[in-house]
Amino acid sequence: MTHQTSRAVLITGDFGGSAAKDTARFDKLPVRHVPVAALSPGLHLRQAGTNATHVQLLIEAASSTELPPILVQQEGCRVIDGLHRLEAARQRGDQTIPARFVDCSDSEALVIAMEANTSHGLPLTKNDRLAGATRVLTDHPDWSDRAIASITGLSAKTIASLRTRVATPDNSKRLGRDGRRRPVTACEGRRRAAEYIKNNPNAPLRQVARETDVSLGTVHDVCNRLRRGISPERNGNRTAQPNKATRTPEATPQPAAITSVPLRRKNHVDTPVTWADVATTIAKDPTIRYTTGGKEFLQWMAHHAGNPEKWRTFITTLPSHWLSTIAPIADNISKEWSQFAERLKQAEHKTLGA
């Protein structure tokens, strides 16, 4: 890859797509087998170092298949993505490891590393992501809160809070996830959201937030304001109405300009995340893709979670004499799924508390 610019935004896809899509660009780079001893950690994203349990899982997976190549910064042979795979190779006694090299600056390598972590592998801890976000914010103070949030896996609100604690220049415009520079003022963002909703009244709220580079909470507020016929801006008042005292009998009251915006359904909600949304990303995790348990899980989920709403088509097609038999079976399955979800939440809390 030719190093043409110091702006990591160009390497990471102008913030336009998901991290998984952006980092997939590097899959086209040639693979080289590099001496393990020649590589260095470099970025140090994980304050506690590598996770021994995760390394062991990779060692077990590597015994039956070859793990994906790691990503290495060309200058200095610093590992951008794949420290756990590197440690697994060391413990296995491997002399070389497959790698792809990227010609990039240190600040670009940091952005690539954080985006790669959000698309596969062992997630960074909250403290690690905060530390990484601080480094990105220091290197790129002109990037918008939502742009940095999309890279680091944090919320835009968290980035905004970090910005107050990091000494950065006072930029009048910031670079958004789509590569465009926009004024920092909140009013400008609210106007963008209102205009987008006007042109795309049925768009999901998350889509509006993504396309206009404002927070989801702001989009909610703008929608509510438009529905009530008031300005989308925080300090906006209800659109001025003609003065009754000066209105002639023949005059027909004109609707407020803001009411020309097609109203979104009151009960409109964003579509929840489905298995289809995350299956590809999860399948890229070596500890799932290359382990027996992981493969079985992927197959099981593909079979049971691929189309969870399919049951709706059977309500009117099943013969009545089987309904009393199938209903309790469905009820039991739903209880099993609820228990599965609860156990996963408990395991997550236990991991976070460790």
From TrEMBL:
Family annotation (SMART domains): ParB
Top-rank taxon: Bacteria
InterPro entries per UniProt: ParB/Sulfiredoxin_sf, ParB_N
Region (Disordered): 227-259
Biased composition (Polar residues): 237-251
SUPFAM superfamilies reported for this sequence: ParB/Sulfiredoxin
Domain ParB-like N-terminal, residue spans: 32-118
Gene3D superfamilies registered for this protein in UniProt: Conserved hypothetical protein from pyrococcus furiosus pfu- 392566-001, ParB domain (3.90.1530.10)
Membrane-spanning parts: none
Name the record gives this protein: ParB-like nuclease domain-containing protein
